[in-house]
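worker-03 picked up job from queue 'complexes'. Input manifest follows; three sequence lines, order preserved.
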Amino acid sequence: MPNPMTDSKDDLKASELVQIQLPSDSANPHPPRFWRSLDELNNGAAYQKGLAHEFPEGRFPKTSGQGGLNRRDLLKVMGASAGLAGLTACTKLPPEKIVPYVRQPEEFVPGIPLFYATAMPLGGIGRGVLVESHMGRPTKVEGNPDHPGSLGGADVFGQASVLTLYDPDRSQVPIHFGHLASWDGFIADFGDHLASESSTGGAGLRILTGSITSPTLADQIKSVLSQFPSAGWHQYEPCGRDNAREGAKLAFGQYVNTIYRLDKADVILSLDSDFLFAEPGGLRYARDFAGRRRMVDPSGTTNRLYVLESTPSITGSLADHRVPIRSSDIQAVARAAAQGLGVPSGSDAALPAGMSADWVAALVHDLQAHRASSLVVAGEQQPPSVHALAHAINHALGNVGVTVIYTDPVEANATDEIKSLKDLVADMDGGRVRTLLMIGVNPAYNAPADVPFVAAIQKVDFRVHLGLHQDETAEVCHWHVPETHYLEAWGDVRNYDGSASIIQPLIAPLYGGKSAHEMMAVLQGQTNLSTHDLVRGYWQRQAEAGHLAPAAASNFETFWETSLNNGWIEGTTLAVKQVTANASAGAATTAAESNAQGLEIVFRPDPSVWDGSFANNAWLQELPRPFSKLTWDNTLLVSPATAARLGLQREDVVKIVLEGHEVEAPVLILPGQAANSVALHLGYGRRRAGGVGTGVGVNAYAIRTSDAPWIAAGATLTKTGDKHHLVTTQNHHLIDQNGQKVEEESEAAFDRHVIRVATVEEYGRDPNFAADPPEETTAAPSMYPKVDYSQGYSWGMSVDLNTCIGCNACVVACYAENNIAVVGKEEVDNGRDMQWIRVDTYFRGDLDNPEAYNEVMLCQHCENAPCEYVCPVGATVHSPEGLNLMVYNRCVGTRYCSNNCPYKVRRFNFKLYSDWDTPSLYPLRNPDVTVRSRGVMEKCTYCVQRIMEAKIVAEREDRTLRDGEIQTACQQTCPTQAIVFGNINDPESRVSKLKAQSRDYGLLRDLNVRPRTTYLARLTNPNVEIKG
Amino acid sequence: MPQIFHHSMNTISRVSIVAGVLLVGGLGYLAWAVNESPYYTNAKLPLEQPVLFSHKHHTMDDGIDCRYCHTSVEKSSFAGLPPTETCMTCHSQIWTNAEMLEPVRASYATGQSLEWARVNALPDFVYFNHSIHVAKGIGCTTCHGQLGEMPVTWKENTLYMRWCIDCHKHPERFVRRRQDVFKPVYEPPANQLAMGKQLVKEYRIKSYTNCDTCHR
Amino acid sequence: MDPVETNNLTAVVETDEVIAPGQTYRSVSDRVSDMVLEWPIGYRWAAGLLLALALLFVLNLALGVVFTIGVGVWGINIPVGWAFAITNFVWWIGIGHAGTLISAFLLLMRQQWRTSINRFAEAMTIFAVACAGMFPLAHMGRPWLFYWLLPYPDTMGTWPQFRSPLVWDVFAVSTYLTVSLIFWYVGLLPDLATLRDRAKKRITKIIYGIVSLGWRGSAVHWSRYEMCSLLLAGLSTPLVVSVHTVVSFDFTIAILPGWHSTIFPPYFVAGAIYSGFAMVLTLAIPLRKYYHLEGFVTMKHLDFMAKVMLATGLVVAYSYIMEAFMSFYSGNPYERYMMMNRMTGPYAKVFWTLIACNLVGPQVLWLRRFRQSAWLLFGVSLVVQTGMWLERFVIIVTSLHRDFLPSSWGMFYPTRWDYMTFLGTLGLFFTLFYLFIRFLPMIAIHELRDLVHKKQEESHAAVH
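worker-03 finished. Artifact:
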C-alpha cells in the first residue's frame, strides 16, 4: 500500500481542481468545472431542474435507438450514409492547451496517484477505506488493509460510493421554498427560529438523524441539547438494527453490541442472517469465514455452516446445509434446537413444515460436539426473541468470549429507532414541534407505512433538510441544504467493533455542501468553525482528558497523523464486556410471534441500492442482483412451488395488500425461495432519487408497518393481469424435464462440468476429483508455432469457488477501475451490458431447495485465444507475458472475436455508451484507462494498466516484481480474497501455489484454448447425520 | 456512314490510358505526402505561445538543467510543466520588469495559470511514460530535438506510431549514457551502434513492441 | 405507352430448341437492339424502377441510421454478434455465382444454351456482388476505418492480420467483382458497337461510341476478343468455387459448434449456385414474358436451369443430412446440443421452414410438368431463395445464441432497421437491373448471331 498522505485537504479548492490537466481519457479539451456560485449555476441546466423540480434524463441511452428519430435527425442521417466516404479517420490532433499550476502543492507529482485512508459510513457504522486520488480527484475506493473492519476488502457500496460523489443529480445549492437560496440566507432564517426556540428551551425543536456513531457529532448534539434542554433528538434508520438491540436488551437487560469471531467457529448456525454481507462487520466476517474454508489438501480442516432462511442470501449460497423455510417459522426451529441443547425456550413449538426432527437433532449433536467453537447468529430481520434465543444458546455452548464477544453499543445513543420516529411523528401531529432539523435522512420516503410522517410534518412551522439529494423529504421542507459527501468533509465514525475512524476528505465540496457537524455548529451559533477544527478539536479534548492512549496526550500532533494514516484511532476499540444472559431469555418468546400461518412477506435491504440511498447510483442499479441476476428493478420473489400454487408467472404484476396498505409489484420466480414466503427488497420506487433512480422499481416501504418491519404475516396477493418486463443478465429458463422442473442453463452447465463440486469426504477419497484429463491440460497439437512462456513473467489468475461468496464487489470495482459504461435497462435487455467481470449462478437439484453455485467469469486470457486469430486488423493480440490484449484504438468492430469467444466475456460498444457530456463525471474516470467510444470491443485486461505501472517502477529500480505487488481491481476488493493474480512462472507466488492444488481446473479446457484463469473446485462439508 | 469521332480520338484514347494510370498513382502519392507533411503532423512548426520562452537561452546560456523545471520527468509518466512560481524564483530577481515577462508576473499576481499551447501531444489512447525512458538512457533530445538550439520550441518529430516503433525495435541506435540523457544538445558518437549494443545489455533494455506497452 | 402494344409483335410460340426456328442474323439484331434504341419507355418499366428507387431510399435511410447511431440499432448483441448483415452478405454473394458459372464455366463447356441468358446473368452477378459488398462495411462498428483491412504502408507500422478469414474475404470479393466486371464489359463491346451503329440520335451514337472503345469488328478484333474472353473465362471459372469457399471460411475457421465444420466449402458453393440459378429464373421468367423473348430464352433454357437447381439442391440436402448426422456421430456435447437446439430450440420454426423450402420444395422439379411451366418454376425459385436466406440465418444465429457457456446464452430479435437494411439492398439491386435492361442489350447479340449461324450449319448438314 502506497503511503497515505495525511495533510488537511481543506485547502484544496475546486478552483485548483479545474487547473489540473485533462484526464487523458477525456476527449473534451476543457477541464472539468464545478458550479461554485449561484451565477455559474444559473447558467447551468441544473438550475432549470432545480426550479422546475424536474429530473434530468438518465445519462445512458434510455431508448434502444430504434425510435426517437425526428425529422431533422432523419435528414442528417440520410446524408451520413453518403458522406461516409469523406469520414475516413482523420488522425490530425486538435490544438491542445497545457495548463500548469501557479503554485503546485508539494505532495503532488503529476501523473502519480495518492492514497488516503478514510472511512465510509453506512447506516451510521463505518467501513475503513483507502481512496485513490489523481491530482486531487478521488477516482477509486479500496478497502483499507490496516483497518480491522476491512483488512483491505471493500463491498459494492464502498466501491460505488465514489460515483455518488460525482452524481450530477446531487443537490447543488440551498433551496428555499423550491427557489435557489444561499447558505448565509439559511443561517439568517434559521437563526431567527432558533432565537425564538431558545426562549422555550427548545421545546419545539427536534433533530432527526440516522443512527449516530460519530463521537464528534454525538458530542455536538449533546451540547446542543444542553443548550436547548427541552429539545428532542430522534434517530431513524430504515434498515436499522432495532431487533439486534432489543434482542440484546431482552437477553442482558441492556443494549450491547455483538461481535462474532468466525475465525474461531467450526460450526455455524445462521438463523436468517446474511452475516457475510448485510452485517456492519460483514467484510471482516467474510474474511474470517473464508479463512476457515481454504483447504490446501484433504488433510486440512474446514468449518460447517447451517443456514435457515426464507429468501436466498449470499451467506445461504455457502451453506453446507441450507433449509428454505418461512422467516416466521425460524423461531420455532431455534427453540427446538434450544430445547435440544437444554436451553429454556418457552412453550413447545411444533416444527414447521419442511423441518424434520432428525435434522434438528443432527444439528444439536453437531453443536454440542463443538462447544466453545460453535456459533449461532440471528439475522437482523429476526424478532428480538430469536436474538435472545441465539444469545442464550451461545452462552449454553460456552461460545461467549470465544466466538462471540460483547461490547457497549457502537451507537452513541442506542435506542429503539422505530419507536423514536413514532414519538417524533406523534409530537409533530400534536403540534408540539415548531422547528424540525433533519440530517441525512429521508423519512418522507422510508418511514413505515403506518407512521404518517408526511401528513404530520405539515404541522411543523419550520422544516430543514440536510441531504445529498433534493429527495422526497426535501420536497416537504422549507429549507433544503446540500450535504457533503463523506469524501468531501471531515468527520468521524465508529466501526462495527467500536473503534473510531477519522473521515478525512479528498476533495473540497463540489457543490458547496455542508456537513452535519457544520449544521450542529450553526445550532450552537458557531458559524465560523471549519469541520476540520471541530473534529480535530474533539479528539484533542479526548486525548487531553486521557480517554485515548497516553501517547496521544503527550504528542497529539503525531497521534493525529498516525490515526489518519492508519485509518482508525488507536485505543478506541470498545472493551470486551462481561454480560450474563438472563437464562430464560428465550422463554420470553410468545406464541403470537411464531407460526403465524398463511403467506408471509419478508422485507430485505436491497443487495444493490440498500435502503434506497444508493438508488441514483447507476453502477449499482445495473448490477445483477445475486441469484436472480435482475437489474434495474426490484420484484416480489416467489418460490417455484408457491408460484405454481398461486398460478403466478414471471413478470406477472400482483397487488400486495398488507394491513390496508397496498402496492403493485412484478413477480420473479426464484429457486431457493421458501414456500409460502415472498420477499420484497426495499430501496426502490423512489419518486425523487434523480435521473437514474427515479421511478425504478416499486416502493416496499409503502406496505411496511412499524410493528412488523421485516416479517409480516397475512399478506394477500392478487393478480392485476398486467405484466412488467424484467431484465436479467442471465436468463434462467425454468423448464420441465421428464416431469421435474429444472433450470435449463444449469442443466447444461453441469453436463459441461462448468461447476465442479465434491464433499470434503469425497475430496479425501479422490483429491483429483476436479482435475481435467491430461490431454486437455498438456498442449494439444497446433498449426501455429508453439509460444514459449517459460521466460520472464507469465500472468495468471486463480479463483477459489470455495470462498467466493458472489457479493458482486469485484464487478463494481471493475466499473470504477476500468471506466466501464452504464447502458441502461433497455440495452441490458438487448444483451449489451458492459460488465467485464460477472458472477454466473447455476442451480442444482430441486428448484424449491437447490444448491446455488456462484462462478466469477472474466476474460480467461487463453494461451490459444480463439478471439485473436479471427481479428482482421490484429486489434486483439497476445503479449509474451500471456495477456490477451485488446487495443481499442485499432478495433474496427467486426465482433468476430466475441463470436469466437467460448466464454462470451467480450463486451461491445454497440452505441456510444460512455458519457462524454456530463462534466461532473470526467474527474471520476481513471486516467490510466482509455474511455472506449462507439463501435469498439472491450474486455477484461487483467488490469494491464496496473501491471505496466508496476513493471515500470520495478524496471526503474532495476529489480523484478515481487509477488503481490500487482493486484487486479477485482482481487484487491474481494472481501474473501477468492481471486488471486500473479506470475505463474514463479513457483513461490500465491497463484502458482493455488494452481498447483489438486482442486484446480480450467473451464472448457477440452477446446484446447488453454485458459490462464483457472478455478479451485467447490467443497461442501455436510453433516453425515443429515440424509439428502 | 459518317464518322462519329474525329480521327484524333485515336491518339486521345491512347494517351488517356497512360494518363489514367499516372493520375491514380499521382493521387496516391499526394495523399501520402500530405500525411507526412508538417501541415498534418505539426512537426517543425513553432506554436503561438503566451510567453516567448527560449529553451536555447535557458539551457545553454543559463545552463539550467531540464529537471529544474520538468521536475517529475524521472518519477512520473508526465515530465511536468513548471508552475508560475518556478519562473518567478529567478524572475522576481532578474528581468523583473521585462515587457516579455508580463504574462508571468500577471499569472503570479492573479493566481490565474499560464495557458501554454501544447507542443508535443499524443492521442488520449497512448500512454507514454517519461520516467522509464530517461531511466533507460533515452535522452530528451532523441525525441524533442536539440532543445539547446531552439529559440522557440517546436515539435521535432511526427510522433507517428511507426516512428515510436522504429526506436522500440532498435533501441541501440538511439540509447545514450545515462549521464548524457539531459544534455540539451547531443550528437551521437561515431560508434553509436557499438556503444548502443553495449548499453542495451548494461541497462537491461527490453525491446517492447507489444500493444499494451502504450495502449491500455 | 407500352411497347407490347406499340410494336405489334407476333407472340413467339414456345419451343424446345435453345432458339426459336426462323431467326435470322437481322431478326436477332433488330429484336435485341430495338428494345434499347427504338422502344419508348414503358409505364410498367417506369413503375418498376420507381418501386426499386423507393427501396433504395429505404436503404439510404437505414444505412444512415446505422452509421450515425451505430450497429446497435440492429438487434445484434452479445452473444449474437452477427445476424442479418452477414446473412445478407452470404446470400447476395451466393446469388452472384450463377452468373459466373453460366458465363465462364458453360463457355468452357461449349454449352449453347448459355448464349441468350449469360448477359443478364452476368449483370445480375455484378449487381449482387455490389449489394453483398456493402454489408461487410456496414456491419463494422467503425466503418470509416474499413481501409485498415487493406495492406498498405501506414503511419502505424501495422498490417492487417492475415490469419483472419475476414481479410481473405476482402481479397476474394474484390477479385470477384473486378474479374466479373471486366468479363461482362468485354462481352458487351461488340454489342455496344452494334448499338452505336444502329443509333439514330447523335448523342446516343457518341455515348455508345465512347463506351464501345472503337470496336470495328475487324478480324483482328474478333480473334483478340475470342482469346480475351477465353482467358477471362479461364480466370473466373475457379472463382465460382473459390469465392464462396472463402466466404464459408468465415464460419469454419471459428471454433463455434455449427460453424466449425469441414463440409462447409462444397456445401456453400452448391448452395450458392442453387440460389444463383433460382435468381436467374426469377429474373428470366418475367423478362421473357414481358419483352416477348420466348424465342430466345426458351423452355429449354428454363428446363436446363431447373435441372441445375435440382442437382445443386440435392447436394445441399445431402450437406444438411451430413451436418446433422456428424453432430450426433461426433459425440461432442456442444455439437449435439447445437443440433438439438436448432431442431427444437427457440428458432426451430425457422429451421423447419428452411428445410421445407430447400429440401422438400424443389423435389417437384423431378417432374417434367413443373420444369415445363414457367410460372411454377418462378414460384419454386422464389421458395428456394427464401430457403437459402433462412439457411444462412439459421447457421449464423442458432450457432451463436447458445454456444459453450450456458450463462451467456441469449436471443436475437431483429429490429425494424434490420429489415429495412435488407429490403434496401433489394432496392439497390433492382434499380441497377432496371437501368441495365433499358440501356444495355440484355441478350448478347453477337453470340445469338453466332448461334443462328451454327443452327443454319446444322440444318444444312441435315439436308445433305
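worker-03 released lock.
The longest helix of chain B spans residues 8-36.
The interface with chain A takes residues 40, 42, 47, 72, 75-78, 80-85, 107-108, 111-118, 121, 123-125, 127, 129, 131-132, 135-136, 204, 206, 210-213, 215-216 of chain B (CB under 8 Å).
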